[in-house]
Amino acid sequence: MKTHHYIFITTALFVALFYNENIGVNLGILGAAYSLLTFFKTSQKNKTKTFVFLFIISILSSTAFAWYGDFTSLLAVAVSLLLLGYRSRNRRMKILLLIPVFVTNSCTFICRFFSFDSWLPKRKTPGLWQKLLAFILIPFILLAVFFGIYTAGSDHFANLFADLEFDLDFWQFLCITVLGFFIAFNYWNYNVEKLIYKQNPVLDNNFHDKDKIQKATYSFLDLDAERMSGVISFFLLNILLLFFIVTYNYEQFYQTVKTPAQLSEETHERVGAVIASIIMAILVIMFYFKSSFNFDPKAGLMRILAKIWIFLNTVLIFSAIVKNSEYIINYGFTYKRLGVYGFLILSLIGLIMTFIKIHKKKRNAFLFNTMAWYLYAVILICSYVNWGGIITSQNMKRNDFVLNYHKNAINFSEKALLKYAEEKHDEKLETEILKKIKIQQNKSFLSKIGYYQTIK
Question: Can you give the pTM of this predicted structure?
Answer without folding.
Answer: 0.85
